Amino acid sequence: MARTRTRLRQGVVTILGWAIALWMFFPILWMFLTGFKNEPDAISTPPHLFFSPTLSSYRDVFAREDYWHFATNSVVISVLATVVALLVSIPAAYAMAFLPGPRTRMTLLWMLSTRMLPPVGVLVPIYLLARATGLLDSRTGLIVIYMLTNLPITVWMLYTFFREVPVPILEAGRMDGATRWQEVTQVLMPLALPGIASTGLLSLILCWNETFWSLNLTSSIAAPLTTFIASFSSPEGLFFAKLSAASTLAVAPIMVFGWASQKQLVRGLTFGAVK
Amino acid sequence: MATVELRNLRKTYLHEEIIKGISLAITDREFVVFVGPSGCGKSTLLRMIAGLEDISAGDLLIDGQRVNDTDPARRGVAMVFQSYALYPHMNVYRNMEFSLRLAGMPEAERRRRIGDVARILQLDPYLDHRPGQLSGGQRQRVAIGRAIVRNPRVFLFDEPLSNLDAALRGQMRVELASLHRRLGATTIYVTHDQVEAMTMADRIVVLNRGVVEQIGTPLELYHRPRNLFVARFMGSPAMNLLPARIHALTPDGMAQVQAGAVSVSIPTRHGGPEAGTAGTLGIRPEHILIDPQGAITGMVTISERLGAITLLHVRLTDGQMIVVQTGGDNTDRADTPIRLTLGEEHCHLFDADGMALAREADHPLLSDL
Ligand SMILES: Nc1ncnc2c1ncn2[C@@H]1O[C@H](COP(=O)(O)OP(=O)(O)OP(=O)(O)O)[C@@H](O)[C@H]1O
Ligand SMILES: [Mg+2]
């Protein structure tokens, strides 16, 4: 009796879980399918569930814009911004986790609070700064902005992971003659590697998907894939099939990447919980 | 050859003084144990010697050189942590090799040294295991091995055996003692465990709230505690302490002491107590004898049979509770009357401030120490 009831409950939970997952995934699936329709099929209401798939939208997209140019920008900007962010935030998080001062807590909260500002609030000053320093429409400009806007998150995450590392292990390193540098690179970083990896992954994803600054600070030379998508949405009216094809092309790399590294990501994000 | 000298060491956190001026001279090859209640500053003091904690004031000298501002590794000290603190991402060999590699020792020399240490500690079969694959006792051995490969001048241990079960702790205690004899390195050892302190130490330092209560050999502390704190702290079961009054002082130095229904005369040195003052009478459980003619009467309330010995908890006629240690073959049961006598030469007398009053006769063992 009780057994059948738990089984029933499990069944309901499973169905509910799938329903929610499908519901959340549906827009992405729809976008993916629409990319393989022709334009009339794409806008027909009610939508055609069965259609003859075509690559014409993809052909058009590749004909109009240089996908690889945008993709290269996305990769270069995301990777470099992430690397620089890690280079800055690992020492910062080390200091905050292991050498805290009376103001450490406040500093952390203040850093996080800067993430709560709407970016548009600082658009004008940032734009003027970028123009004055010649960083408009440059990869360096976006790398700097991405790195800075992600710092609060990467520092916080690394801080949390570092706090999980037992202090005596670092002290043992110090007793064994490790310099500060060796302590960080040979003891702390190997121990916190899952955390560092998931922090890097998250930073990569955030950089890849960032839209506001890329639209406002780049036009052609440094434009990443988010700009590539946007360029299909405006001038000559909406072309849903082409827009969907472009979007699929833009999100595919990061989706594949995220899926491939999901084990790492989950392990990192639940590191503190399970230990 | 390594001496350690603490000169009025102090440690202040924010505004709170944790270590309040500790002076201590440790001779070469000596095994010194720090004991004291939780939070008294044992670990803090040890970490100050290690170099993991800044010294707020005072001087720390190793082999006569002031090392207050020297890096931990340069002090020539090695530390074994309570939690072992092994590097989880390195195997046993790499754990022991780490300090040697950082010191730039050639590969062949490292291999030789680690081989030697692994043999001493019976770690040969585990050299390529990670710490996570080892038992508690094996991890403890690796932690000790990591300390000895460096050939340090001074060993520091912070409650190294407290995570082991009782049997293993006993075994490791013996191993550590023989290791100390073999290596002859100066050692400072922090523990909670009475048995560890009594059996391993050349000298014990009793700490309380950041000050030294007494320094001495284990038997000195046991038989001649300087004050009530040490009397209470050393020994298990603890010394019986009864509030007392000194009634009279005879010209030959016998103090007539009355503690409730208990009346004893204790030989004291001249210039000791004054008649009419209050104090505390102390007597260890093993120095109370069951005696059918004894003047002290009471009721047994609980009898704890430990096999080799029996502990009788006795309620005296005046209501005070004392513990009597007797042989394992004792047959007294709870709720039976009992008569006792005190070995007067073993009684301790403390004045109103808790300081021990000097006794005329010393414990026979102490004279040849
Ligand atoms: N970083 C710190 N900041 C403030 N106070 C501290 C700090 N570290 C230790 N203390 C305080 O110093 C005192 C001594 O601590 P310590 O760890 O040396 O005690 P202990 O004798 O080793 O105790 P235990 O037997 O429990 O290990 C404690 O009261 C503790 O609260
Ligand atoms: Mg401690």
From TrEMBL, chain A:
The keyword Transmembrane applies. InterPro entries: BP-dep_ABC_trans_perm, MetI-like, MetI-like_sf. Gene3D superfamilies: MetI-like. Pfam families: BPD_transp_1 (PF00528). It is found in: Cell membrane. GO terms for cellular component: plasma membrane. GO terms for biological process: transmembrane transport. It is a multi-pass membrane protein. The chain crosses the membrane at residues 12-33, 75-96, 108-130, 142-162, 183-206, 239-260. CDD domains: TM_PBP2. Keywords: Cell membrane, Membrane, Transmembrane, Transmembrane helix, Transport. Its main location: membrane. Belongs to the binding-protein-dependent transport system permease family. This is Carbohydrate ABC transporter permease.
UniProtKB/TrEMBL annotation, chain B:
It comes from the Bacteria. Transmembrane segments: none annotated. One of its GO terms (cellular component) is maltose transport complex. One of its GO terms (molecular function) is ATP hydrolysis activity. Keywords: ATP-binding, Nucleotide-binding, Transport. PROSITE patterns: ABC_TRANSPORTER_1 (PS00211), ABC_TRANSPORTER_2 (PS50893). Belongs to the ABC transporter superfamily. This is sn-glycerol-3-phosphate ABC transporter ATP-binding protein UgpC. It comes from Komagataeibacter rhaeticus. The lineage of its organism: Bacteria, Pseudomonadati, Pseudomonadota, Alphaproteobacteria, Acetobacterales.
